[in-house]
Write a structure and sequence with these properties.
single chain; alpha+beta; four-stranded mixed sheet; 13 strands; transferase
Length: about 240
Amino acid sequence: VGCDRSKNLVDICAEKHFQAFVCDALSVPIRSGSCDACISIAVIHHFSTAERRLATIRELARLLRPGGTALIYVWAMEQEYKNQKSKYLKEKNGSKNKEREMNTGKAQRPLSDQGPDNSSQDSAWSDQVLNGLKDESCGAKLVADVRLPVHTNRTSFHSQDLLVPWHLKGGTKKKKESVDTVLVPGGSKEAQELSPVFHRYYHVFCEGELEAACRSLDCVRVQKSYYDQGNWCVILEKL
């Protein structure tokens, strides 16, 4: 049984005769202790606070029967690990797969993950750090003009919290959306059309961060923690 926040993805599952439904990872409408195994692939890194990320792991554990296992994949800050670059870094812009690069859903796929894509003109960095600056005279925090950095495709991460642009291919032929637009470079007429750009929030995990969050829960035991092609991964067992 599968679930996803996106109705369109769930509809695709239904067309393929798979059991799936729309829900929120923070509140899954399945009875506690009813699952032998659960997987969470490329989900938890989209939650914007440590508390919410931990809550999704706790919810995953709730679904498991005692002795049941869960597999979690999240995007890693370290796209180069033990002197090895991930496939994401190796697939540079300007390669043969230009069309593939414009379709973000195929950018990085450790299992069913969907990685990022953007163009150089989307790259922007914040003038203020997310935590704000402290005014020494009064102890107040300055939070003016706080913005998240926008990631540049096929490059290393320079911030754990960032926005990843998603270029909707052929967006001008679809229903109009209230989103930013960019001019897609290319020789064809279609490539010159304006395409909507959706900015998705990511929190990329540093080494040990996912494992530490899992170990903070008394109801599970970490069986294995490992790195796989630009992702941090954990296998849990329900106690």
